[in-house]
Design a protein that fits this description.
Largest sheet of chain B: 6 strands, antiparallel
Distance between the termini of chain B: 56 Å
Strand content of chain B: 15-25%
Radius of gyration of chain C: 19 Å
Structural class of chain C: mainly alpha
Number of helices of chain B: 7
Order of helices and strands of chain C: EEHHHHEHHHHHH
Shape of chain C: globular
Distance between the termini of chain C: 39 Å
Oligomer: heterotrimer
Strand order of the largest sheet of chain C: 1-2
Low-confidence stretches of chain C: 1-19, 23-31, 116-155
Shape of chain B: elongated
Largest sheet of chain C: 2 strands, antiparallel
Largest interface: B-C, 66 and 65 residues
Chain lengths: 493, 248, 219
């Protein structure tokens, strides 16, 4: 079919499905304006650099004042929407018009038919309404936190280097609107989400400063050594490259193995910053993902979801925790996980030098995961082991929490703490830092209970509030000995 | 007797955003003046001045009026106090206690600042017919948009707050226009603030509507505005399309 | 005027006398009755619009701070039956007009009682449609004389009838205006004609048409 025929057909199909046609022709300069299911929709057809004809559809969500809350919300939303991307559209001249939040999706013009269009429009307009009310909630929360509603000064404006995400994805497979398109973001996943916007201009941190921060982390000596070595190797390679000398390409992708709570995410974040500082990556921000961020409920959607997450990590580091769950054959989750892995590999191939991937998990499972796929084997050739913390290190972490919370321990309390931590059973799955955090919470809670039970609340002194006594510390459950089995594969660890 | 300054008493109610001021200048030959539907000024004759002086001031939607600086008719001496009252207004107006909140202030104002000036004169009266036609046009647009929204407004959860505020605001403005027959800046600014996502309008249509609403601030343009609103209602009903070449 | 007990929150500005925010302590009658069918923002907006419109109407005839006192009364009345009111009067501006009539009348009566019979304000309305001289005892006397019509109960029924008529029968707004000014606010046909800018006969015609429709509904 000729281009004109394709365009005419698409226009006809769109107008048929709209409440009304508000103007325009589908041309890139005069997009087709429609009202679909009560929402303002704009559509245009354009040709990609390689000649492919693309239909791009935008749905208007709302006007926004540019501010950190909006951008953070939009950035976290991008990875969650199954097949459409949400972004902030900024006017060409600042101040000429307000910025708007829009939902976009692109399709291969040649593949468009009535059914596909109906589903896409349906899904997008539905998502639009939900996004609008959620956006309003986010803004209301931010307003109430700030206090004054009218205080325009409170909102920062986004640096001009932010560019709209122009990635175009041709439709693959049948797209069905998700039963629950608004998958609630598991706050745990994004707990450490570094809301650094790609290409955002930040103060440049010199490599040595970041390495110093790494060195200040409690324990993790082998990890620190390894990272230092890695950075040095990358810098040397860079110098050789500049001098036109042959270079052995060192893969920036890594495998982190060890128990939970051993600092893998923290180190991954610092690694991102290091890569940026040595010029290996443009932005070095961290995106955390796990199986549920990559895998979707329907065929064809996993690829799209994974790609969205990868796109959000472009320029920085993608950290995938429990990566082996993508290919484990328990429960027959196999096929979707494999789709995610393949999509990831394709993306890594297409975007060499633009992203680093760190996969993490338990040692044996991660070994199997990497070995199972030649693509993974080729890219992930460096593994860094995150050992469990020593008892003394865990104690130091606890005392760190205490200091930050302005607590002091009596010497009896400190002794009791030491023996409690010393008696912790070490096994696969031992929570390390997380255990300490939990313990700290329990201790402070117990401390409060004791204070209140002690008698008149009015007469509690500041000193008493700050001082943790021995009876707030639980008794050790085991006598300090290693219990349980450590998994490992000889020299691999 | 020469009086340099007089006492002013101010009151502000966050509920309704109503500001009132009374100046101790006596009550000889009182004249009530409506600058617009939101602003009413009372003038009296004062022995020391040739021109009338302000005896009282009432402004509705005061806070919004002050956003880009105090309006010309407000005596300079009270501006800072007024802004303090705005800033310290409680944010929980909707509660049983908050709704009754009121601020009061007393201060001295130089008599000269109360003298009547051109900015504080009434705006022209609009004839009943124009007022009625503008009111009717606003109501018609509201019904057209309400119909378009309700077809897909399947659950209250999905209804946009701004859209509901906007539609309700159209009705309110129509009533205010019909009963007061002069411009209402507070109603217009409420509509402008809610002319956003959730309304069944394209980008162009939204911009056009915004400029039409702004035009209603000058009662001279009410006839044109009514026509444009009627056109827009027809557009929303799908009977025609907005001509993009018409100026915004 | 009855004064409610108050709590004061003080903010001081260096060059001005203290500005106080007077927050009235919760008077049981003042607690806003739950309006669970309406979201909080809508209730807030509604009350705000009623206060705004009431101010617009009242400042035409009363001193600013007197208006403020009347607003307090209106608010008290509204607060006790907010959900009901929002149901019956979806348009807050219409409700404000309906209630202003009553409140203004009450207030004037109270003032007259305080000052003794024969007291009048001397105010002249220059702009606005009401070319009423206020030594216009006709207006206020007229109002006072129509006590039977001003009985809340009767007015309420008329209000209800109007709402139903407006919605169900679609009584045009000019018929409503004529009826409100004459039967409810007590203006004579001539006065109403001036206010509306139409002929006296037209007022008469419209008011009768409206009355008939209301009667149909009231029966």
């Amino acid at each position: 079919m000729s281009t004109k025929k394709i365009i005419d057909r698409i226009r006809e199909l769109l107008i048929e499905r709209a409440d009304r046609w508000a103007g325009g022709t589908l041309d890139e300069r005069t997009p087709l304006e429609l009202i679909v299911r009560g929402e303002s929709v704009s559509a245009r057809v354009y040709r990609r650099y390689n000649g492919t004809l693309i239909l791009a559809i935008d749905v208007f969500v709302d006007y926004v004042e540019e501010g950190p809350e909006v951008f953070r919300w939009v950035a976290t939303r991008s990875g969650v929407m199954p097949f459409a991307s949400i972004h902030v559209d900024r006017p060409r001249l600042t101040g000429s018009a307000p910025a708007s939040v829009k939902i976009s999706h692109s399709l291969l013009a040649a593949a468009v038919d009535g059914d596909l269009l109906s589903e896409v429009l349906d899904g997008m307009t539905y998502m639009c309404r939900r996004a609008r009310s959620r956006l309003q909630e986010v803004l209301d929360e931010a307003d109430s936190r700030r206090g004054q509603v009218d205080d325009g000064q409170a909102r920062r404006s986004i640096p001009d280097e932010i560019e709209k995400n122009e990635a175009v994805t041709p439709a693959e497979g049948i797209i069905r609107p998700d039963d629950d398109p608004e998958e609630e973001i598991d706050e745990g996943v994004f707990e450490h989400f570094d809301a650094e916007i790609p290409k955002a201009v930040k103060a440049e941190r010199p490599v040595d400063e970041i390495l110093a921060e790494l060195d200040e982390l409690i324990g993790l000596q082998p990890v620190k050594d390894e990272i230092h070595r890695l950075v040095a190797a990358q810098r040397v390679a860079d110098m050789r490259r500049r001098k036109q000398l042959p270079v052995d390409e060192i893969s920036p992708h890594l495998v982190f193995v060890g128990n939970p709570g051993t600092g893998k995410t923290t180190v991954a974040r610092l690694l991102g910053q290091l890569y940026r500082a040595i010029g290996l990556l443009p932005s070095g921000h961290l995106v955390e993902a796990e199986r549920s961020s990559l895998v979707a409920a329907y065929m064809g959607q996993t690829a799209i979801k994974t790609r969205r997450v990868c796109e959000s990590a472009l320029g920085g580091v993608l950290f995938i925790d429990e990566a082996y769950s993508l290919t484990s054959t328990i429960d027959g989750r196999d096929s979707y996980g494999v789709e995610a892995v393949n999509t990831l590999l394709t993306f890594m191939e297409n975007h060499r030098g633009q992203m680093a991937v760190v996969v993490a998990g338990y040692p044996m499972e991660m070994f199997e995961f990497v070995e199972s796929n030649p693509g993974l084997r080729a890219r992930f050739d460096v593994t860094i082991d995150f050992p469990d913390f020593e008892a003394a290190e865990l104690e130091a972490i606890f005392l760190g929490f205490a200091e930050r919370g302005d607590y002091v321990l009596t010497s009896e309390a400190a002794d009791k703490l030491r023996s409690f931590i010393g008696g912790w059973p070490r096994h696969r799955g031992f929570g390390n830092g997380r255990e300490v955090r939990k313990l700290f919470g329990d201790v402070t809670r117990r401390h409060s209970e004791l204070l209140v039970a002690s008698g008149s609340v009015r007469s509690i002194t500041a000193e008493q509030l700050r001082t943790i006594t021995a009876d707030a510390i639980p008794a050790p459950t085991h006598q300090g000995r290693d219990i349980g089995v450590r998994y490992g594969l000889g020299g691999y660890l | 007797m020469n009086v340099a300054s007089v006492e002013a008493r101010l009151r502000y109610r966050p509920t309704g955003d109503v500001l009132m001021a009374e100046f101790a200048v006596g009550i000889v030959d009182t004249e009530i003046d409506r600058v617009d539907a939101d602003t009413t000024i009372t003038w009296v004759r004062h022995p020391d001045l040739d021109v009338p002086v302000m005896a009282s001031l009432a402004v509705i939607g005061a806070r919004r009026r002050f956003v880009s600086g105090a309006p010309g008719f407000v005596p300079l001496a009270i501006v800072a106090a007024v802004e303090t009252m705005f800033r310290s207004a409680p944010s929980d107006i909707g509660t049983a206690v908050g709704v009754e909140a009121r601020a009061e202030a007393r201060l001295a104002v130089p008599l000269s600042q109360l003298a009547r000036s051109p900015e504080s004169s009434s705006s022209p009266e609009v004839d009943v017919a124009s007022a009625r036609s503008l009111a009717a046009a606003l109501r018609e647009l509201k019904s057209a948009m309400q119909l378009a929204v309700e077809s897909y407004d399947t659950t209250p959860v999905e209804r946009s707050t701004a859209a509901r505020q906007f539609l309700g605001g159209l009705d309110s403005m129509a009533s205010i226009v019909a009963s007061h027959r002069t411009s209402t800046p507070s109603a217009v600014s409420h509509l402008a603030a809610n002319l956003r996502g959730g309304l069944p309008l394209s980008d162009h249509e939204r911009k056009r509507l915004k400029s039409t609403l702004d035009r209603t601030l000058d009662p001279e343009h009410w006839k044109e505005a009514a026509l444009e609103l009627n056109q827009l209602a027809a557009v929303v009903r799908g009977e025609r399309r907005l001509d993009h070449t018409e100026g915004t | 005027m009855r004064r409610r007990p108050k709590e004061t929150i003080a903010n001081t500005q260096p060059n001005h006398r203290p500005t106080e925010f007077i927050v009235h302590k919760e008077d049981p009658a003042m607690t806003i009755a739950p309006a669970s069918s309406y979201p909080a923002w809508e209730v807030e907006r509604y009350i705000g619009e009623v206060m705004a419109e009431a101010t617009r109407v009242l400042v035409r005839k009363h001193a600013a701070f007197d208006v403020d006192d009347i607003l307090g009364e209106i608010l008290a009345k509204l607060a006790t039956r907010i959900a009901d009111t929002m149901d019956r009067y979806p348009n807050p501006v219409v409700y404000a007009h309906a209630v202003c009539g009553n409140q203004a009348i009450d207030f004037v009566r109270a003032q007259n009682a305080q000052r003794g019979a024969g007291a009048r304000n001397r105010r002249k309305v220059v702009s606005g449609d009401a070319q009423l001289e206020d030594s216009d005892s006709t207006v206020f006397d007229g109002l006072v004389a129509r006590e039977d019509l001003l009985e809340d109960r009767v007015l309420d029924r008329l209000e209800t009838a109007y709402r139903e008529a407006e919605i169900a029968l679609g009584i045009p707004s000019d018929e409503w205006e004529a009826l409100r000014l004459t039967d409810m606010l007590g203006y004579s046909d001539a006065e109403a004609a001036e206010i509306l800018g139409i002929a006296r006969e037209t007022v008469n015609r419209r008011k009768n048409r409206a009355r008939k429709r209301c009667q149909e509904l009231l029966s």
